[in-house]
Amino acid sequence: MSDRIPVRNPNEIAKLRKAGEVAARILMDLMPEVVAGRTTREIDEFAAELFKREKCGNAFLGYGGFPGQLCISVNEEVIHGIGGDRVLRDGDVVSLDVGTIVEGWYGDNAMTVPVGQVDPETLKLLAVTEESLFRAIAEAKQGGSLADVCGAVEDFVKPFGFGIVRDFVGHGVGRHLHEEPNVPNYRPNYKLPRLKRGMVLAIEPMVNAGTFRVKVLDDKWTTVTADGRPSAHFEHTVAVSSHGGEILTERPRIALPSQLGIAPL
């Protein structure tokens, strides 16, 4: 498998970083729009304005027929939610996933945003999920195993009793939105390749408050938890380096694990 994973040179990494910076900027500019009373369609429409402002391509719009500017998933919706008539309410959590194309290179990142006063257990879900992302990023180092990246998510999340989604995984990213390799959020029972400097991964833990099981709705996109409990989703595009992953979609952390009694990395 390692022979099929692209290894990017410094110039290519710089181009991916540029795409990642735009993706992160759009994501952060969407965050203030996630308020009670707003519809998910209104947020999607605002995202269209941001893509126009940035003069960049949209990695998701039209991908496989996807109709939205971004993936916007509320509460029990795990990923691939489509903007519509759903009105956000106090206590909701909203996952936003943004992908950009800049000069032919892709950036991909996601985060879950709380709306108003969210119950402590759901806030803990967000904090655990975001922290697990950083645990995985720390393992994205030259000579390490991709299995250690995947296992870092599982090792951190499992003691909290949350469900790690298995039906959807992270992926490579570069000239295409989805490239080799797949990046599960658990340590699989098959061999995974060693990492080389310059490999680029979209690491994206998807963690549910209850069961790990999910189902896809009739729109063929929106994926929800099988038990209807909330889910969280955090993602960064990361370049493998000698001392751990270099984040190409750098942005502030929002889940603040230290405030919830969870020690950050």
Strand order of the largest sheet: 8-7-9-14-15
The shape is: globular
| Mean pLDDT value | 95
Helix content: 25-40%
Content-based structural category: alpha+beta
Radius of gyration: 17 Å
How many strands in all?
15
Number of helices: 4
Main beta sheet: 5 strands, antiparallel
SSE order in H/E notation?
A: HHEEEEEHHEEEEEEEEEE
User: Gap between N and C termini, in Å?
Assistant: 30 Å
Strand content: 15-25%
Which residues form runs of ≥5 with pLDDT under 50? none
List the helices and strands and how they pair.
Layout: H1 10-30, H2 40-54, E1 57-58, E2 71-74, E3 77-79, E4 93-102, E5 105-114, H3 120-138, H4 146-157, E6 163-164, E7 170-172, E8 179-183, E9 200-203, E10 206-208, E11 214-216, E12 223-225, E13 231-233, E14 236-239, E15 246-247
Antiparallel strand pairs: 1-4, 2-4, 3-12, 4-5, 6-10, 7-8, 7-9, 9-14, 10-13, 11-12, 14-15
Helix pairs in contact: 1-2, 3-4
Task: Describe this protein's structure.
With 265 residues, this protein is α+β, with helices and mostly antiparallel strands. The chain has four helices and 15 strands. Helices cover 25% and strands 23% of the residues. The strands form four sheets. The chain has a five-stranded antiparallel β-sheet with strand order 8-7-9-14-15. A hairpin with a 2-residue loop joins strand 4 and strand 5. Helix 1 packs across helix 2. The chain starts with 9 loop residues before the first helix and ends in an 18-residue tail after the last strand. 49% of the residues are buried. The model has no long low-confidence stretch (mean pLDDT 95).
